[in-house]
Amino acid sequence: MFKKSFKNEHIFIIFAGLFFGSLHILSASNIIECLYIIPYGALSCAFAKMYSKTNNIWTGIFFHSMHNLLALIIIIIGG
Asked: What is the mean pLDDT of each run of 10 residues along the chain (79 residues)?
């Protein structure tokens, strides 16, 4: 939906990264937790870049799922 709204690929990637990254911090209870927009936004920019290059939303969905799975495995192993 967003991709068609932007003529410039770089603006699309930045906007999508900030938008989807900010969705992950909606429940932040203090200003320090809001800083998580940096890693979430960077990862979201990478997913937006994947979508922009492949024109296939499932590429980003797959890598997002793999990222979440890896994080879950690290949490389980690390305690």
From this structure: 82 92 90 92 94 93 95 92
21 within 8 A of 41, measured Cβ to Cβ: yes
Chain position carrying tokens 């690290």: 74
| Host H or E run for residue 45 | helix 37-54
Question: Do the beta carbons of residue 25 and residue 37 sit within 8 Å?
Answer: yes
pTM of the model: 0.83
For the chain, how big is the Rg over CA atoms in Å? 14
- Structural contact between residues 25 and 34, judged by C-beta atoms closer than 8 angstroms: yes
Which residue bears the tokens 């927009």?
A: 37
